[in-house]
Design goal:
With 294 residues, the chain is of the alpha/beta class. It has eleven helices and ten strands. The termini are far apart.
């Protein structure tokens, strides 16, 4: 994986979106997980999704990657609908993700974890692999070069001497980096990061924020991030989307979204004084707001 010599220009307004969610809805019985969600992500854009626990953020990722099928609406990637396609086909189209909880192969080496993600795109048959025929050997060499390049992108954090170490020997922050490295091995166009800074200290959080920016600037990736740490969101996002109970409540720049009344209410609840002043509230008049005396 070779980075361009200079960062590409930032995404331009009016570009055809790489990812588009159109009136996306999902329900589990009587539970509404997503409701009429619209979102467009342009090429080489970093968009962050925020919201309290249970807002539906990870559910959006599960719908995009084919784990859940929406009850209504559409998901379009690179101009075509991907609704109903299985996760492995969606991954081949160019969408990769990480998970809120680590999904590494802990007893495999760092290099083997990255190599494991490359085999979804190989063409050698089982017979060719067992007999180690020329096509298998050629693909094996190519996969190793790709894995080495990806791990080199992370510098000393996943340096060469670590490649043969088991994943369980890594620090928590480096396990997070390894999961991102494994996602990169699928050669994605769109990278979905689910709480990449979760559990990290301030120094590690700053490093992961810089890493997200490098993924876009040096590898030309489009990135959709779920994150609770507002320092990360403010530091890497071109645009921010806020969800609450599966509904989009705000969208725009970080400062605009972070100060939006609906976002403040979703995180902190209603202002007791404002609530008391509402019609029918503890301090409000019951005759205001359309309620009639009888």
């Amino acid at each position: 994986m070779t980075a361009p010599s200079q960062p590409a220009s930032p995404p331009q307004e009016g570009q055809q979106p790489l990812l588009a969610l159109d009136k996306l809805s999902l329900g589990f019985g009587g539970l509404r997980a997503l409701a009429d969600l619209d979102l467009q992500v342009r090429d080489r854009e970093i968009v962050s999704m925020i919201g309290p626990n249970g807002a539906g953020k990870s559910t959006v990722f599960n719908v995009i990657t084919g784990i859940y099928r929406p009850t209504a609406g559409d998901v379009r990637f690179a101009g075509g609908s991907i609704v109903g396609r299985p996760p492995h086909i969606i991954a081949r189209h160019g969408i990769a993700r990480t998970f809120q909880s680590l999904r590494l192969f802990m007893n495999m080496s760092v290099l083997e974890n990255v190599l494991a993600a490359t085999y979804g795109s190989t063409r050698a048959s089982p017979v060719e692999s067992v007999l180690r025929l020329p096509r298998h050997r050629r693909e094996e060499r190519q996969n190793r070069v790709l894995a080495h390049d990806i791990l080199a992108f992370f510098g000393q954090r996943l340096a060469g001497y670590r490649w043969d170490q088991p994943a369980y020997s890594l620090s928590y922050a480096n396990r997070r980096r390894l999961e991102i490295a494994r996602a990169l091995a699928t050669k994605p166009k769109l990278l979905l990061l689910d709480e990449p800074a979760a559990g990290m200290n301030p120094t590690e959080t700053h490093e992961i924020t810089e890493l997200i920016g490098r993924l876009r600037d040096e590898l030309d990736l489009t990135i959709l991030v779920i994150e609770h740490d507002m320092h990360v969101v403010a530091g890497c996002s071109d645009r921010v989307l806020a969800l609450d109970h599966g509904v989009k409540i705000a969208e725009g720049g970080f400062d605009t979204v972070a100060s939006h009344p609906a976002v403040v209410e979703a995180y902190l609840g209603r202002d007791p004084e404002a609530l008391a002043a509402e019609p029918g509230g503890p301090g409000g008049s019951p005759t205001q707001g359309g309620t009639k005396d009888r």
